[in-house]
Automatic annotation (TrEMBL):
Its main location: membrane. Residues 614-637 are annotated as: Disordered. The chain crosses the membrane at residues 53-72, 92-115, 122-143, 149-170, 191-217, 240-261, 282-306, 333-354, 366-385, 391-413, 425-446, 466-487. This is Major facilitator superfamily (MFS) profile domain-containing protein. One of its GO terms (cellular component) is plasma membrane. Gene3D superfamilies: MFS general substrate transporter like domains. It comes from Galdieria yellowstonensis.
Amino acid sequence: MTEPITDIAPDIVYRNSQEAEGVESAEISVQDGGSNTVGDKDNKGSRMSSIKFNALGTALGFLVNGYMYQVGSLLLTLYEDVYPTVYNSSTLQSALSTAVLYGVLFGLIGFGFIADIVGRKAGLIMCSSLVILGSVLSVAANGTSTDGMMWMIIVSRAIVGLGMGGEYTCNVPNVMEDSEDVNVNTRGRRVSLLVMFMEVVGNNTPTVIQLILIAAACRNVTLDSRSSTGVRLPGCHPQVVWRLSYGLGLIPCVIVLLFRMRMSDSSMYQSDAKLRKKFYDGLDLFVILRHFTSRAVGTVVMWLIVDWINYSQGNFSGVILEKVTGVSLFKTAWIGLVQGVIFQSGPFIASLVVDRLGRRNTEILGWAWLASTQLINAGIYIILSHHPVGFIVWQTFVFIFQYFVFIPVYLIPAEVYPTRIRATMYGWSSGLGKVGGILGTTLFPYMWKGFGHGVESLDALRDIQWFYAGLEYLGLILAVLFVPEYSKTSLRGEDRRYNELRRRYAAKFAKSLGVSNISDAELREASNSSLSLYKLLKLKIRSSKETYLHAKQEYAKMLLARCYFQNSEEVERYAELPIYYDDRTLITKWIRQWKMGREEAARYIENAEKLGWEDNSQSSEERTNKNGSRKDDEMTIDNAVAVLNSEGKKPSY
């Protein structure tokens, strides 16, 4: 007997009960005859044990990520206080504050592919290794000058960022898929606590450590105590502070790497990996561009705006606080710690409401709060600067609600895309979002001096607050229009709809090229084809029209094989089926209602939800043959896999 294959599209009754009651998901396996049976208790217990271990590894991983993000914030303030080279160079300031972000950007995109193609666990092991390597190089940073030493730190932190970026694309999709098997109704809360809440705990950890280090090595340093002697500043040993800050972060990194060895890929990923060869094809790109554009605005642009604001203000928060209040570096660290502890309640509260309110409504509430309070902040900024305590209290009060934006922004890309491309699309969403963080952090020192006519003044800081308010109102508008709603909705349903879209588009593409009379032998041969979009483009440019047409026909056969078509009749029937797909954004819903009318739009959405469960383009009578029985060639992807599996053939989809 061949190995059972986990069903990616469970029985409709089971799926409905899972969404309605939120019961724990049982492992569903397809046996040789193609029927779904509940896995035995030992397998279920083993899977739940794996889910718990993955959760612990996720929590520790994001604890480390939070540490690595925040460790540089206070150190940037230290560098400006004690190294004139840094204080006088906007380039160094920007590079130090964005090095991690550049690494995260490329890590997000690169490891998105790795997580989908190689596996979540393999990607996580590589991520932890990169973070350890970068941290070791950070501790060992040196140079013939202060400038050279700073650039070695910059390169080292970029390597750390590579691993940190992969943490998101490998870990968040994995824990989201695990949460699908725990409770669909509380999936958002579980992922929020394991990811965002633990990341904020990690944000506070370096502040505690640096308080102790600064108290021992640089207690009375302020912006005004800067000396041209650089690292020999009297009463301060800055290298003790920053080398130990980077070095102590290695301890949890090693622990996390050990946990990575015991973690496992989610059952949803393992199921999807068995249904296909681990690479993409032209159908994936076509479906993304054709149906996922609106939701991509909601996942990419939202992340870009929030990262622009968060990273620019976060990385320069210590410098701003010193400028406004005039306190020492040690007191700045204390204030940052108190704020961080208070901020800890933000992700906790947001995680409690994100399932109740829904992702879209939670994010809209967050943007509305931030935009409104930012306007007030800009109006009274100068007044608050004369009352340091009031300034600190108000800033804390304003930003505690930023997590009502952060949590939906983190969750939505991991929910709205199917398992086949989930990590890749999560990586692009977050990666392009990090472009906002890089732009915001890079431009902040230039904007500060530009608005202040060459001087880092309070008036210039107030002007920046007006700019942020405008960004936040833009975020509010886009959240209403482009953020999709997937709360309490099974991820397996999206997998089913996506696979059905692939089948219908593959059939239509084949028919448009005249690929109709195709034998089983040709389909089996086509499943092993090495054709790719890149090769097709080369043939289009360099070869004759006949050669290019033949290559397209072979590519169409390959797509049919990967979508488990069994014969020409099935291809013909699928080619005639209409396309229904609802991306669950308001902008698409309103456009559809405007074009079709409310009633027709409602029927369209109903058909879109049924996509893959039945041929919803036909009536019951049309779906029966002359003898009153269902057509024999109505075979779902899962039944096709079961047949191939029983014949001892490896699926290629």
